[in-house]
Each structure stands twice: as structure tokens, then as C-alpha cells.
Amino acid sequence: MPAADFDFDLFVIGAGSGGVRAARMAAALGARVAIAEDRYMGGTCVNVGCVPKKLYVYASEFGKGFADSAGFGWQVPEPAFDWATLRDRKKAEISRLNAIYERLLEGPGATIISGRASLVDAHHVAVADRSYSAGKILLATGTWPYVPDWPGREHMLTSNEIFDLEHFPERLLIVGGGYIATEFAGIFNGLGSRVTQAYRGELFMRGFDNTIRQFLADEVRKTGVDLRFNSNPTGIEAGVTGYRVAFEDGSDLEVDTILCATGRRPNIKDLNLACTKVRLDDAGFIRVDGNFQTDEPSIFALGDMSGGPQLTPVALEEGMAFAHREFGAGGPEVDYNFVPTAVFSQPNVGTVGYTEEEARREFGDVTIYQSDFKPMKHTLSGRDERSLMKLVVDSDSDRVLGLHMVGPDAGEILQGMAIALRMGATKADFDRTVGIHPTAAEELVTMREPLGT
Predict the structure, then answer these.
(1) Based on the domain organization, do 27 and 115 belong to the same domain?
(2) Contact yes or no for 267/142 (Cβ under 8 A)
(3) Residue 350's CATH number
(4) Domains: count for the chain
(5) By residue range, what is the domain housing residue 405?
(6) Are residues 298 and 372 in the same domain?
(7) To the nearest whole number, what is the mean pLDDT of the chain?
(8) Are 142 and 43 in contact (CB under 8 A)?
(9) What phi, psi does 200 have (nearest 5°)?
(10) Counting Cβ atoms within 10 Å, is residue 358 exposed (0-12), middle (13-18) or buried (19+)?
(11) Tens digit of pLDDT for each residue in 105-125?
């Protein structure tokens, strides 16, 4: 069917980070583009993810700052936190960003369609009672929180709802051990909740370097979070004074609010994939090739729903690469090596490259450099908080394969380090670099003795 016979050259389902980037770039390259969204512009990151989370992290850190200031001579009256102010100011900021995303799409001429879109066949999409045809269809609907089928599961909230609670939770249970659960534990603990974080495994933050995981657990406990491993709920009952949660070990806990952060799964409900050749992989994600093409040649998928790193900057890169490949002159493919990431836990985690465990499997002989220290600030604040920095080095080539950090501003520090690792920096390069004194980051260029020597 000739391209001119379609309503659009590209129809994008989902206006999150990847979908918006693909739509606006394709439109800027001259394609006729439509994008459908049934909830909010900007997707998870803007509305119930990265952006509001970081704002709440900032809010939660003020309490620690007030307490620490006494060691520096400040006399601060007893601070009081107002949840409604934070919540409502966040809402206003998100609304502002939603409008910006609309303008980003309207600028190059993309057509915005409000409503839940579903596939009709390989070239047709239905939204409400209208049908649209397109030469290419891009699925970019992201992921959705997964809630286990426990008795009383209806009493649990997810990260979709936790930002906008009517009342601040005095007692909060967070179920899960990934970065979302751990970040919210720090947020609500810092804002004044009594937080319990329960995880079914022996140690949380699976997939991160094991040294980092253990160090972070020790530091999180110091902040007052009741961190429980090998702890899995079996049921929830509503009572007069709260929710009673039963655990596998026979214990129970009464709380005001329960946040379920046990993972996310592709948001494919109602997409009607069965009418096409689109298939899922063994983990339930949309199966795609290196060009984001599904088993249906005219249908593509990218972002979180396609099973790669669930990170906003990765989805943006994928959206850009897709648009240039399909509607432009081509361009560089997305390189998934040495993708940095940060966890805005308290303290923060920053990481790029191989974990020690991955490096030993891939390269065999590796050398570890590690520094564990008290940040200079806390020599006067009196806070019992420590930072950790770790370098994983290939013993044969001297190349730095991985860099991991727990401590303040870990994400800010690791962004620059990610450039060095992508360029193939060696430990000798780090050693020849002059540090900035006094900073925590200078530890990265002053570690000389391998761990264990």
C-alpha cells in the first residue's frame, strides 16, 4: 500500500519519554505523525516517576539538613513539615511539564490524539470509535506496577498513587527491594514516617554490585528505616486503626499505608496484540530486533516495554535512533555498554559499567580498589554516615571496567565518570588525574592500593 494512502506515516501509541522523542523527531524529519495517549503527557518519568520522585527526595533531605546544622553553629527552631504543600506544589510543576510536552509535539506538527489506542491490524489503530491507518506503528506504552495476588492486595498502593496521598502516612510499609522501593523508603523516612521496608530476598538491590548492596543496607538502617530481608507478606487485613500485615515467618505489623513496589511489567493490556504477529519474549516484554522491529514488520516497540534498561535516557536515545533510521538518513545505533545510572536512595548510589561479579565472569582476573570513608561534612555534623567508592579494573589491560559509589551526590559524580569509562580510561589514567580538594570525588583518583593488599 503506497505511503500516501495511509492517514499517517507513523502512529505512536504512548506519549512517554521514548514515544514523544520518536514522534517529534520523525515529524521534524518530515513524516506525518500521530501520537495517542490515554493518561498524561510525558509518561511515567514526568508524572509518577523520575521527576516527582526527585522533588520528594529534595524535600526529604531538609530534615537531615536541619539536624546536621547544629554541629555548624546553627540554632534552628523545631521544623514542621506540611505534606499538602509539597504534594500540591508538585502537582503544579507536573502540569507545567505536561504542557511543555504538548508544545514539543505540536511544534513540528505531530497530531496529538487523546485516548487509549489499540491495534486493529498491522497498519490500523483504533482510538475510541475512530480508526487510523499508518505505514508504521510504534508501541511505547512503557511498564505498569505489578501487584502480587496476596489476600488483601486491594489495600496496597503503587508508585502511581503514593505521590498524591490525601493524608501523610505516619506508619508506612514498603514491600519490595528494588530501586523504587528503596528510594521511597528514604523519602518517607526523611519526611517523618516510621518506615518498614520488607524484601523477600537475602539482600535488596539485586543486579547491583554486591559490595554496594551490603554497604547501602548498613547505611539505610542507620537512617532509621526498619529494613527486613527474607520477609514476605502473606496477607493484609483492614482494621480500625490501620492495616494488619501478616508475614511468612509468623510475624505481623500494623501500618497506615502499604506501598507495593515489587516490580513493573509491560503495559500491554488492551493493545490487542493478538491481531498482529507481535510476540513477547520469555519475560513478557515485547520481542524486538536491533532496529526495534517486532515480529510484525510494520510494528515497532521501544523503551521500558521492550525489555532493555528501564531508564528514561535510554528510551530517549532509542526514540532518536528509531526516528532517524526510519524517516531520516540513519544514524548511530544505541550503545547499551557503560550506561550509567543513579539510585536516589539515602544515601545515593551511582554506578556505571560492570559489577565485580559480572567482571569476574567476563574477564576473569580483576583488581578491586575501594575506599570507605566519613564525608567531611559529618566530622562536624556528628552524623554516623559513611561513603563508599569502588573501582573494578581489568588486571590484564588496566582498563576500569566498573565504577560504583554510595554517598552524597553519587549521581552527579558518576555522570562525568561514565564518559571516562566509555572512552576506555585505565587505572593509570585515574592515577595521573589531579584531584579536586577537598571533595569526596577526589577519592576516585587517589586510590592506590588494591583491596586485599
Answers:
(1) yes
(2) yes
(3) 3.30.390.30
(4) 3
(5) 341-445
(6) no
(7) 97
(8) yes
(9) -70, -20
(10) middle
(11) 999 999 999 999 999 999 999
